[in-house]
Amino acid sequence: MIPATLLLHIRSQVSQTKRRTLPGSMPSGINGRNSNLREEAAGMSEVFKGIEPMVHNSKISVPYSWWAGDTASRFFISLRDERKIIAPRCGNCRKVFMPPRKVCPSCFTENTEWVSLSGEGTLVSYSIARRRLASIPADKKAPVIWGLIKLDGADTALLHYLDEVRPEEVAIGMWVKAVFAESRTGGIRDISHFKPVR
Amino acid sequence: MDRAAIIGVGMTKIEANKNRETFADMTWEAVNKALNDAGMSIDDIDNVITTSSDFWDGRTISLMAVGDVSGAAAKNISCVEGDGTYGAFYGMMRCLSGSYKTTLVTGHTKGSESVSSLITNSAFDPIYERGLGMDMITACAMQANAYMHRTGLKPEDMAMVSVKNHGNAFRNPVAQLPMKITVDDVLRSEMIADPLHKLDCSPVSDGCCAVIIANETVAAKFRQKPVWVRGLSFCTDSFFFGDRDLARSSALAEAARNAYRMAGIKDPKKEIDVVEIYDAFTYQELLWLEEMGLAEYGKAAGQLQAGAFNMDGSLPVNPSGGLLAGHPVIAAGLYRIAEIVLQLRGDAGAHQVRKAKTGLAHGVNGLCGQSHCVWVLDRER
Question: Pick from A41, A126, A137: which is nearest to B142 by CB?
């Protein structure tokens, strides 16, 4: 079984600030009844004037374990134990899917065959984060480069990291190959990254 | 088939941080504005649809936070998780069902209260993708690269969208970010994720929008001029980026075709007068226009440069300033509908465009425009 853990931190970032000057934000051209309603609606009636906005700071942190399913498990076990990238193929339309999934979306039938891929392929597109976005794992340093890689023999492309390449060298169409992680635990990061084939 | 119309709209000002207003406070304001706009009381509303996202709201069953202020006590209330245009789609279906006559639709988001990078990272597949750490901006940068590679679009071409939309926002009292900027300003702003500079990206925003949809049998019963729904459709692409052609959006092309067919529109370039489109990033305004048949694929930037999409151009696009001038995520598409309604009624004030009989509003759900919702609205029935 491949457990994946969600640790989602949602941090309240609303700062405690002084009351903003509100009249400037009033919409113009409003008449009697609307005006009263709008002032009330905007929390601007007399009784609330001058009240300091209080903020409740908290976070959501919920452990979550996803069963990866038979299809992803087989793929991950192959990465972990054999350093091999395998992919399911539709018995009907013959399409080969990365990332692996159980059902062919076109034929609406279960994929039953597996094929081995070489681990090399073409870069379809890429993205380069220049700053440390909150979503980036702690072990990665900016710039972080992600690639959409169409592996040789697959019909759909896999999202993963590009590395051992400078940002300015990355180009759509470049040939890349998988580099496996030294320490593998049965997950998508058992592939460390893809690097250019020079 | 039966018809329905939008008979009232209400928008809060979009702001970076509404720290004096809860979700309920924002909704109360937007709902009351929509009721006033329609000349209705809450008793005239027979059912309520909210659009919200539990992750963005930091709670489950997020509609429960806004039911009371939507007047939903003792009424049927239901929630759509996704963009506001999808909530309105559901609300319209209810009006056409025969069971309901008047649907109040709301959409709210407070982007200021969480961390957008973590929330949008959670949209990725948890088994294969999420741990790699991409978010909405880095995902859309990947789409922008694919689109630029296919079409030869340059960063300075995309930057013109930012200049136009931030400029338009000066005339829209609810816009968050009116800015007088140049293409160079955009290109010199911080590179967040190549090729997206900070000024290519929409801001994090708070806001709530409400619209009231009525069956044709009651649409003329209230004070406001009805704006008629002539065509609408939504279509969805594959979830995994690697299954799609990221440089295109077949889902949007199909949604637009369906909506035009329903509206009886043969030549959208000639028959659509004004567009409010989901420009979360600059390149998206161009790509979405092209996929909707409002420009040739890869050619929208040329028309933009020639001024075609300006307020006084042949096809004004985002006269409100669009998402680049304020992006309350879940509500953003509902704001597009409300803006088109104001334009078609002639009530858009300083950002009113000259000729506005038929308008198009567009909403997006999912990463890199996985799903698109297209509305064709008309002043005339």
Answer: A126
pLDDT at residue B156, rounded to an integer: 98
Mean pLDDT value of segment B347-352? 98
The reply to whether residue B122 touches residue A8, judged by beta carbons under 8 angstroms, is yes
Interface of B with A in 138-157 (CB under 8 A): 138-139, 141-143, 145-146, 149
Distance CA B213, CA B216 (A): 10
Mean pLDDT of chain B: 97
Residues 50-79 of B with CB under 8 A from A: 55, 58
Number of domains composing chain A: 1
CATH class of residue range B4-115+204-219: alpha beta
Is B25 touching A (CB cutoff 8 A)? yes
Euclidean distance between CA atoms A17 and B324, whole angstroms:
25
Residue A137's Cβ-count burial label (10 Å; 0-12, 13-18, 19+) is exposed
Which chain B residue is nearest to residue A155, measuring alpha carbons? Answer: B243
Residue A17 clears pLDDT 50, i.e. is over it: no
Q: Residue A104 belongs to what domain range?
A: 69-196
Phi, psi for residue B341 in degrees, rounded to 5 = -60, -45
Q: Tell me what the mean pLDDT of segment B12-27 comes to.
A: 96
pLDDT tens, position by position, B198-209: 999 999 999 999
Say if B194 is an interface residue toward chain A (CB within 8 Å). Answer: yes
Pair B301, B286: CB distance under 8 Å: yes
